Amino acid sequence: MDRSSRARCFARVPNSIGEHVGFDQLLDAFAEGEALVANTSVHGVELACEDAGEATFDTVLFRSCQFDGVDFSGCTFRDVRFESCRFTRVSMERAWLNRCDFISCSAPGLNLLSSRLAGVLIADSDFSLANLSETSIDQLRVTSSRLREAALQSVRLKRCELKQSDLVRLDVFRTPLKGIDVSSCEFSAPVLSSDYRELRGARVSPSQALELASLLGVEVADE
User: Fold this and answer.
1) What angle do CA 50, 117, 123 make, to 5 degrees?
2) Which domains are assigned to the chain?
C-alpha cells in the first residue's frame, strides 16, 4: 500500500504487525463465542460457512483472505484493515466497525444491516448490492469503488465523502443527502421517495443536475 493510501486510512494497524493467527486458531476462537482476536495479521485464510460467534477483532490486518458464507453478525471490528479480501454471502449485520478499512476488496452483497460504522474507508473495492440500510454512519469515505445498486435506506449519515465511485441506482430511500457531494461520481437513477426529498441539499455536477431534473418533469431548454 502506497503512502497516499495509508494517509486515507482510518485503521491504526502497522504494516509490520506479525502473523500470529491462522485457520485453526480462528476456528477455535469462533467456537469460544465472544472471543477476542487482537494484535495480529491473518494472511490467505479461506473461511466458509463459519459463525464468528460475535467475536471482537482489535488491531487486525486481514490480507488476501476469502470469506464465503461467514456470519460476522454482532461482531466488533476495531482498528481492522482488510486488504485484497473477498466476501461472498457474508453477513456483518448489527456489527460495529470502528476505524476500519477495506482496500481492494470484493464484497458484492455484503450485509451490514443495522450496523454502526465510525471511521470506515472503502477504496478501490466492489460493494455493489451491499446492504447498509438502517445503519448509523459517522465518517464514511468511499473512493474509486462500486456501490452500484447498494441499499442505504433509512441511514443516519454524518460526514460522508464520496469520490469517483459508481453510485448508479443507489437506494437512498429516507436517507437525506444534504451536504453530500456526489459530483465526481457516477450518480444516476437513484431510488428515492415520491417527493425526492433525499436530494435536497446534495451537491451534484451540472450534467447530473440535468438528468435529475427529468425526475421532476422539468425540461431544460437549449441556449
Assistant:
1) 85
2) 18-215 (2.160.20.80)
